[in-house]
């Protein structure tokens, strides 16, 4: 029973990811959302009351305005998603900035730098 519940919330989370991104790109008219972004993950609670939506914004200077725009448009986005997904209750959307991609790039750069330093030490 518990495995089925987690599987269901995972499926709903994946569907929420797709639909939230589609609504933001197509229906939200806020100019602060005109940037390069991606919905990276959606965590839906087991009771389907809340969905934490992780958003990755490429341009660093547009992150804060984008998150403010999403938080102010959360009710509109929730209503639009509710019309697209057939659920008894549409989860309340909580937007969270996701910096994991940026962190991964930083780690790759650090590893690359360490590799170059070790190669130069071996040559000397």
Q: In terms of structural class, how would the helical and strand content be classed?
A: alpha+beta
CATH level-two architecture: 2-Layer Sandwich
- The fraction of residues in strands falls at 15-25%
Strand ordering within the main sheet: 1-2-3
The CATH topology assignment is GMP Synthetase, Chain A, domain 3
- How many domains, in number, for the residues? 1
Low-confidence segments, ≥5 residues, pLDDT <50?
Answer: none
- Regarding quaternary structure, what we see is single chain
Rounded to an integer in angstroms, the radius of gyration calculated over CA atoms is 19 Å
The gross shape turns out to be elongated
**CATH H-level name... which superfamily?**
K homology (KH) domain
The CATH class label is Alpha Beta
Number of helices: 4
What is the helix/strand order? Answer: HEEHHEH
Quickly describe the structure.
With 124 residues, the chain is α+β, with helices and mostly antiparallel strands. It has helices spanning 2-26, 63-72, 74-84, 100-123; strands spanning 37-44, 50-57, 92-97.
Structure notes:
This protein has 124 residues and is α+β, with helices and mostly antiparallel strands. It has a single domain (2-99), classed as 2-Layer Sandwich (GMP Synthetase, Chain A, domain 3). It is built from 4 helices and 3 strands; from the N terminus they run αββααβα. It has helices at 2-26, 63-72, 74-84, 100-123, and strands at 37-44, 50-57, 92-97. It has a 3-stranded mixed β-sheet with strand order 1-2-3. A hairpin with a 5-residue loop joins strand 1 (37-44) and strand 2 (50-57). Helix 1 packs across helix 3. The radius of gyration is 19 Å and the shape is elongated. The termini are far apart.
